[in-house]
Amino acid sequence: MGAAVPFAFQDNAEVARRFPDLHPAFDSNEALTEANRCLNCFDAPCAAACPTHIDVPRFIKKIGTQNLMGSALTILDANILGASCSRVCPVDVLCEGACVMLRYNKQPIAIGRLQRHAMDHFWERGAHLPKKSSRRRSQKIVCIGAGPASLACAAELAQQGFSVTVIERHALPGGLNTYGVAEYKLRPPDSLREVAMIAELGVEFRFGVSIEHQSDLAALESEYDAIFVGVGLGAMHELHIPGAHHNVNVAVYVVDALEFIARYKTSGNLTVGNNVVVVGAGNTAIDAAVAARRLGAAHVTIVYRRTESGMPAFGFEYEHAKQEGVVFEWLAEPVAIHADPASGRIVSLECARGGSNFHLSCDMLIPAIGQAPLRSLLERSRGPKYYTGGDCANGGREVVDAVADGKRAGVAIAKSFEAADA
């Protein structure tokens, strides 16, 4: 059923069991009932609130008339990753947060789940993306990175008849959709299925390719007519506190949040400590903390240096973490990691609060304190051939923002060659 996934990945049944869908799919009757609640607003504040400006009333109206394929194509026309965005978008602060139903103290239309319903139908029917143009363009474009921004750019250009290559340093495409989004929101096979759909447009994917030196960029400049840089952000920041690096065993049990999530999602490594401490309170920290609980940690604590009101995570993520049993320590600053001298294993994290120190039992520490920008590559990626988008350009926002960036870049690249092809 659906597009074949040409990228090797072995799904893990135990991971799937521990991470059921956060928001289960609608059945046909539920979707029809919900779609018929929509007022089909003329001004559509929901569509305006979506970074990719999906025509929300239109796709919902098509669900209401049971034209699910038409609904899915409406979504894909605006957002090539409409399936993954239906699962991972913070709809509470985007489309659903703008729903006019809220003005009447009613529940907003469940736009995200309706979008998923239409996209699930698309996959079940084994449908394919249509081309936007029958022209075969002569220019060659390369996208660096295979995350949402590059995928959106590549799809837009391939649909318009350009030859597109995507290069990626990892073994699998999809970026954070594959490696870094919590399993209960988006599974790797669902991410890779979307990439397969884009590959069917004729987009070529090359893996295990890193762009590290000026000579690498020079080689691309000589081969391609335009270069899109969608590399995301760099490595997560490390905790520079005593005890973080003095022992090889400590290094094993200090793992950054993205690496932790990638391990259980793509390698099936379900090893987790009994007392897990996550440092940071962004959405990635929440994802890691909830995952640790679902993987069997008895106690999971999030340590954050500010108060609850200063937490960068969305409110609904915070509430979800509390429901999962995650405990929060506010106004706490990590100052040292303590290990058992004999085994080298972590035993506690020392924190400071209000002039005094306290210890948290800890046998696995997960820093989630942000990622460094890839400034060096961006500074070298300048000139008339270069375009950028996604987290590397916007500093780290949502998947849907990266998709919007990538599509805009694809449209701009296509327009830049109109005169040459006239």
Provide key terms for this protein:
about 425 residues, FAD/NAD(P)-binding domain, four-stranded parallel beta sheet, 19 helices, globular, disordered N terminus
Structure description:
- This protein is an alpha/beta fold and 422 residues long.
- The protein has three domains: 17-124, Alpha-helical ferredoxin (Fumarate Reductase Iron-sulfur Protein, Chain B, domain 2, Orthogonal Bundle), CATH 1.10.1060; 140-234 and 373-421, FAD/NAD(P)-binding domain (3-Layer(bba) Sandwich), CATH 3.50.50; 248-367, FAD/NAD(P)-binding domain (3-Layer(bba) Sandwich).
- It is 40% helix and 14% strand.
- It has a five-stranded parallel β-sheet with strand order 3-2-1-4-12, sandwiched between helices. It has a four-stranded parallel β-sheet with strand order 7-6-5-11, covered by helices on one side.
- α5 (68-78) crosses α7 and α14 (283-294) packs parallel to α15.
- It is globular.
- Mean pLDDT is 92; it is low at 1-5.
The CATH superfamily of the largest domain turns out to be FAD/NAD(P)-binding domain
Question: Order of strands side by side in the largest beta sheet?
Answer: 3-2-1-4-12
Say what the CATH topology of the largest domain is: FAD/NAD(P)-binding domain
The backbone outline, from C-alpha atoms, is globular
Count helical runs. 19
